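Our preliminary data section would be incomplete without showing what the modeling component actually yields. Below, a chain of 338 amino acids is followed by its predicted structure, encoded as tokens that our downstream tools consume directly.
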Amino acid sequence: MDTPQVQASTAARYIHSLCKLLAQAGDPVDHLLDGTGLSTEALQSPGRYVHHDALDRFLLNVEQQTREKLPGVLLGHHLNISAHGAAGYAGLTTANAGKAIEVAIRYFPLITSLVTLDLNRTGSCAQLQIIPAPGISSRTEQFILHTLLASFDVMGRFLMGDLKLEAALTCSEQKELRARLSPAIHDIVFDQPDAFFSIPETQLEVPFALADQSAHERAIEQCERELKSLNNQRSLAGRLLELLTQDSAPMRNQEAIAAQLGMSSRTLHRRLQNESASFRDLVQTARMTRAKHYLVNDRFSVTETAYRLDYQDSANFTRAFRKATGMTPSEYLRQQNA
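Predicted structure:
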């Protein structure tokens, strides 16, 4: 039985924008969509979203076919407010950077669901955590982090002059990254266990010159409509799979998940059947997605990964992983690190 993929990954318009930027730089773009299942026409379709696997293959093509080593920086430096639609205008017209970040956190699914944002405002500095969804590749995660960082670089200077941002990134040291960012990014540390941006609380309170309460309220209303529409488009199986993969707790049973969704276990079973899906298959897919994240991103051992996913032992986990992926966990790790 085929299991639906996690939906609403990344708005297609960002891939389209990057293709245009690469073409303007003189790079060949005719084959950047090869193997992605995407077309130029699809990328320009309003409301279109692209799954992680298609985005990751696209980024691999960029890596192999163009001279651009940091596509996220290229994209982030060229994203103006209109590129983000209503969410961009909602942030631009709010009172200050702190409020703008709160807007970004709520409506970030309209941009991508491959990472979530969380703001911790305690002490003299606020930390914006960037939390990757389980199972996304390091290539895709790095692209999103670079895009965010470059966007903060540009918009911080435009709105405030100097955001005084410091960044912690999970990737290895990249000297070119430092060179392509302005002094508004005060510092970057690499090889960190978690990714976050740190901004002085005083900077978050600086008033925006373009603050407009009436325009802000209209933009928020539009964002709410788009977010509701996006959620309504997603299948129950897709939402359930995302819930299972992003949950850091041990795998819950069908009764517990049904209760969280406000329905009986029987209703959940019937609705999944109507979508040609089953809870058992979704759990297995989520287990493998989380397993890949534990092995590659968290660098857990095979034994620790098996324990966290409720397998009786590492041998049972290895057999299940090979059945799902065609390779052992160790082989998968070697492939990812190649």
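The first strand starts at residue 10 and ends at 11. Strands lie at 10-11, 49-50, 115-120, 125-132, 165-168, 185-189, 195-200. Preliminary results of this kind motivate Aim 1 of the renewal.
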